[in-house]
Task: inverse folding
């Protein structure tokens, strides 16, 4: 499948569309792109809102649950003391009532199962908390965009958690992180880039189970992050077009063709670059490199 809207012929010297029909096409493309980025922004806002709302109830469920666990431990201790005291009731009607009740409620099983239930539930709540935190980290819509010193590994990890759903059934994720200094960047936007690369990598996997490798490193005042997959790869012909807005090879509904073009724009805004190395049938490797320190002049 090809791009929804073909790229208009651009004048090589001024990069403007040379033909009125092309100009119309370029306008429509720009408009669609604006609508799309507006949509992305409101999705981010929605995610942050939902995360904020969930945060509170999850917080008290978590803290009540920890208290409940302590109370239950005490109750079990008390129960053990009662059981020890039962000795003295042997032969009385009270003893047989207690024995019947013990069988009815399967006390021994209960004693085993309650702690398991508690720890599984706690794990579940902890996971919800983590997702909420990741959503907050990811959307980070606090007013203006800030060039902040950021741990890119943290951004990559929380983005990975968010798109884990898309990935976990298709590929194993291998992390080969190097040493990264904090990088001055627009953190939510960089997360957006990671998300696009991760989702693309997962979508490229065309065998029962693939592998996505994440690498990172820094050299000469620059930091880089790499997302490699062992999926379908990209043909030479397509490779020239993957950064074009609306270029997609995916069926309608699966791809918008905007992921890489938006990512490219974000990376350029950081004064960085994006490289791709791919072989059809073997897989692809996308590398994002940005300067560690943001220079105002570097942004176009
Ligand atoms: N990791 C990858 N492996 C193979 N093809 C890829 C990969 N990443 C991107 N592509 C190609 O680039 C095209 C454009 O990607 P993108 O801009 O993210 O749009 P979309 O994913 O919506 O199609 C994809 O349709 C696909 O053909
Ligand atoms: Mg994509």
Result:
């Amino acid at each position: 499948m090809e791009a929804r809207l073909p790229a208009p012929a651009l004048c090589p010297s001024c990069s403007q569309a040379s033909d009125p029909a092309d100009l119309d096409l370029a306008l429509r493309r720009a408009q669609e792109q604006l609508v799309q980025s507006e949509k992305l922004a409101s999705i981010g806002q929605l995610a942050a809102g939902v995360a904020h709302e969930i945060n509170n109830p999850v917080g008290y469920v978590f803290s009540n649950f920890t208290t409940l666990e302590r109370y239950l431990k005490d109750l079990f201790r008390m129960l053990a003391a009662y059981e020890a005291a039962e000795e003295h009731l042997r032969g009385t009607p009270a003893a047989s009532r207690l024995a019947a009740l013990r069988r009815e409620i399967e006390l021994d099983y209960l004693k085993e199962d309650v702690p398991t239930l508690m720890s599984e539930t706690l794990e579940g709540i902890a996971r919800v908390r983590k997702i909420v935190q990741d959503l907050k980290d990811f959307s980070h819509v606090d007013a203006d965009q800030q060039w902040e010193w950021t741990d890119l590994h943290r951004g990559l990890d929380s983005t990975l958690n968010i798109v884990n759903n898309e990935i976990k059934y298709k590929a194993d994720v291998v992390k080969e992180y190097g040493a990264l200094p904090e990088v001055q960047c627009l953190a939510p936007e960089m997360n957006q880039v990671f998300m696009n690369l991760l989702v693309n990598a997962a979508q490229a996997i065309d065998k029962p189970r693939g592998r996505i490798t994440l690498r990172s490193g820094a050299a000469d005042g620059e930091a880089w992050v790499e997302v490699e997959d062992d999926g379908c790869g990209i043909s030479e012909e397509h490779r020239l077009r993957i950064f074009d807005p609306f270029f997609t090879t995916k069926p309608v509904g699966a791809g918008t063709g905007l992921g890489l073009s938006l990512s490219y724009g974000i990376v350029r805004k950081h004064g960085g670059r994006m490289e791709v190395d791919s072989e059809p049938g073997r897989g692809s490797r996308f590398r994002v490199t940005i300067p560690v320190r943001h220079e105002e002049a570097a942004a176009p």
The CA atoms of residues 248 and 257 lie 4 Å apart. The chain has two domains: 1-143, 146-298.
